[in-house]
Write a structure and sequence with these properties.
binds guanosine-5'-monophosphate, binds zinc ion, globular, alpha+beta, 138 residues, 5 strands, 5-stranded antiparallel β-sheet
Length: 138
């Protein structure tokens, strides 16, 4: 399914040109316009899904193997020593384009690692309570 107002639908289906790294019947993987590092790639399904909660079964099954394959190719071709897989869902999580995509961000020796986040101390009771809240809805 396509959304005619969605720029990633147009890019994924080749209507807008892009620096394509990989393409098959399910995905097009392209270089990000504003890369976090050299080779920063985003994998776009050709069908429109707004986020991971909406993702179709085939794309869901294939996304991790595809990301791993691209990451391995980045290590061989670009000389990165690691890579982050990042996938944002919702405005509060930093999603800016509402067509599911997975970032593959190469990381280089001596360069910055994963986008950092602030972590806090926890206590066992609070963790148990929070785990129970989530379990209730599964
Ligand atoms: P999000 O923040 O939604 O996870 O990521 C959206 C990403 O798409 C951003 O990293 C942004 O730089 C990239 N992006 C947005 N518009 C375009 C575009 O037209 N072409 C390409 N190649 N990347 C885009
Ligand atoms: Zn779309």
């Amino acid at each position: 399914m396509r959304d005619n107002t969605c720029i990633f639908c147009k890019i994924a289906n080749g209507e807008i040109p892009s620096a394509t790294v990989y393409e098959d019947e399910t995905f097009r993987a392209i270089l990000d316009l504003n890369p976090a590092s050299k080779g920063h790639t985003i994998i776009l399904p050709k069908d429109h899904y707004k986020d991971v909660c909406d993702l179709g079964e085939t794309a869901a099954q294939k996304i991790l193997p595809t990301a791993a394959r691209i990451g391995k190719a980045m290590k061989k071709s670009l000389g990165c020593t690691g890579f982050n897989l990042v996938q944002n869902n919702g405005v509060s999580a930093g999603q800016t384009v509402f067509h599911f995509h997975m970032h593959v961000i190469p990381r280089y020796e001596g360069g910055p690692a994963m986008v950092s986040w602030e972590q806090q101390a926890s206590n066992p009771e609070e963790l148990q309570k929070t785990a129970e809240q989530i379990r209730q809805e599964l």
